Known about the structure:
By secondary structure, chain A is mainly α.
Amino acid sequence: MNREEKLRETILQASLNEILDLTEELHPVDLLEVLQEYEEDQKALLEKFPDEYIAMVIDEAELDEKFILLSLFPSKQKQEIISEMSSDELADMLGNIDEDTQSRILEGMEEEHREEIEELLSFSPETAGGIMATEFVSVKETMTIDETLKFLRDIAPNAETPYYIYVLDDQDVLKGIVPIRAILTSLPDVLLKDVMLENVATIPASMDQEDVSNIFQKYGYMAMPVVDEEQVMLGIITVDDIMEVLSDEHTEDMYRLAGLDEEEEIDGSVLDSIRSRLPWLLVNLVTAILASATVSLFDATISKVVALAVFMPLVTGMGGNAGTQTLTLIIRGIALGEIDYENKKEILRKEFLVGVLHGAALGLIVAILGGLWEGNAVFGLVIGVAMFLNMVIAALSGFFIPLLLKKMGIDPALASAVFVTTMTDVLGFFFFLGFATLMLTYLL
Amino acid sequence: MNREEKLRETILQASLNEILDLTEELHPVDLLEVLQEYEEDQKALLEKFPDEYIAMVIDEAELDEKFILLSLFPSKQKQEIISEMSSDELADMLGNIDEDTQSRILEGMEEEHREEIEELLSFSPETAGGIMATEFVSVKETMTIDETLKFLRDIAPNAETPYYIYVLDDQDVLKGIVPIRAILTSLPDVLLKDVMLENVATIPASMDQEDVSNIFQKYGYMAMPVVDEEQVMLGIITVDDIMEVLSDEHTEDMYRLAGLDEEEEIDGSVLDSIRSRLPWLLVNLVTAILASATVSLFDATISKVVALAVFMPLVTGMGGNAGTQTLTLIIRGIALGEIDYENKKEILRKEFLVGVLHGAALGLIVAILGGLWEGNAVFGLVIGVAMFLNMVIAALSGFFIPLLLKKMGIDPALASAVFVTTMTDVLGFFFFLGFATLMLTYLL
Lengths: 444, 444
């Protein structure tokens, strides 16, 4: 019996008190795995738990699963569960279902809660406003440590775990933060204004989530406040939201580099996969046709020296690989913010030199191979020079194309690879076959 | 005047009290940026700060920078700074310098501290033991909330921010955890054993850091305890350590897919770049030679129908791209743990069907193009069938090769791309030129 099977048995046979004990020890993610494995028992299993715990399970579920799980329950219980869900997860769920159902659910909510969620829904999902939660603990600067502790005892069970306490004025403008450790380690009659940190780093609600995650990575914060233009505090983003953003952005980078839509899912439908990939393959078809057209310029030459066709895969294959190396380094460097105005020239100089040296080494190898193959030193010279030039082209296009795209406001991961391989293919063939045409008398 | 320039001025002119105020507001990462921009002022700037703050700056510095910054100070102050550094950062720094200097520094440390750091150094850097810190707050289960609060007031300033309090028995075996919120929200005379959570999820010290980061991502923990085989608590890993691991693993995946060594740095030396990339280019040269050798089998055919050489880039270019799409999806799916025994067959069926449908669509397009180009329907048929077959080969090799490598214990990101393109190149040429040879009488 595996772990999920055992857990399923335990839950189905548990008394109310055993279930209540279980909610203390069982992570909602683990229950979620049981639900995924035993779809037919989802209702029977979830029903045994209190609404608050069901809400935690739905909070942890994947975006597509949330509403499916919620729909197992009758309307009245649905609203109870919703009132216990995290605001950010609830808004994500509601943003992902049809508008009629969304309005019906919003109408069933208490006014204050509904307004909060409607505000969250008004932000674009990939911005700070779109990922923040509205559960945070706010206090006034005139409170003492002891008053704050009492206040926390009253309200904390309804808020996301408080890592910081936010000090707001009467207009909800953020004045400072009080770290939990300051509350734990200060004497009871100290005023919050004497322990709070001012000049708090804040995130504007409109900031793109990728920039938000860069700030979290740079400073190592556990949570950051999100504010509007007037510094009015709207919500918080915690580091676990950022872990998800990081993972999503990673998938996006890898997928875009490979020509996949970032929405494609590994267990999605055939139709979705084709919709994700065929457009990109068609773009590549056009660039491949450009490469073929370049070759066709020289078909008279090839018909006289067939060995040129034999060596064609060498020139372009190697050019594509070397270009991808430089390209990947630059794209990752852009994403990590490692490239700035000053080191750009240094990097270009290095990449150019690497291209020249790779070109010299690989050019020499293929010159010898080609010369021996054809028993003709000039043939070796032609393929060697072509390889050399293609390595330099690869280095330069791998460097300039992503930076140029970035400057034009296009995600370099999205379009660089196709441009770089077009350069190395088209120019690679052009130099190889063009040089061969010039030297034709020596090749026959 | 930019931000770093202004900060440099402020610091150099600040009085002791102004500096002390600044340490409250200035994030060490921001000072680090000033130090990176004004290398000549590093000593003058850092000297103005108290040892504790200098330690925080060195904690935040990149691995290579840490010891350089520390070396700005005389021996005695060095040891003071070291005693204030985070144990995990200190161990990383010491693991990165020559053994003589390491021993000298260790000898200068207080015994207890030295033993802690020597234990950290004994773990491999990419395991849980290698990334954990030894600063955590531990208590006994017989303490009350009020006693715990008093205890925290005494010791917390020396520990990393406590998110959890760990309850240990007399042998340092982990019995449970007390969330900070329980301390804040429980009444003063409650015993810890009544609020502590038992069955705590722990990390074995030998666990690979990638597995550790998967657990953090799955459960959304802020910190987790690291234990030895007897459940004796050794240290904690916090989520900010995990963010670094995630970013490093992401770089590693992208670099390996592109044929770069994961140690390569964007602003490294030319020699390091060549050492990172040339071996991979040489592996690719061998596979490109295989492709060329395949073409050479059919040079008699090409010499009669030069248009075959013109269309060669189409077949292999498209095969490589389609193969990379499937490959990337599978590699990312493996990394995210999205592929299991059950959905494997589903995914294969889908990828195969996608390959067949892409092959049909693209095969039809190039058949028409090829037929028109040569004014020969059979030529169109040959290129169309070759394209169709290559799309199916791309789908199958993009699916099986990474899974096979994974089974053999090889990182699929490291070696898949070269095998997949070899398959699509070699088999692509073989089918295209082979079929053309069979149909040769109709192509002339």
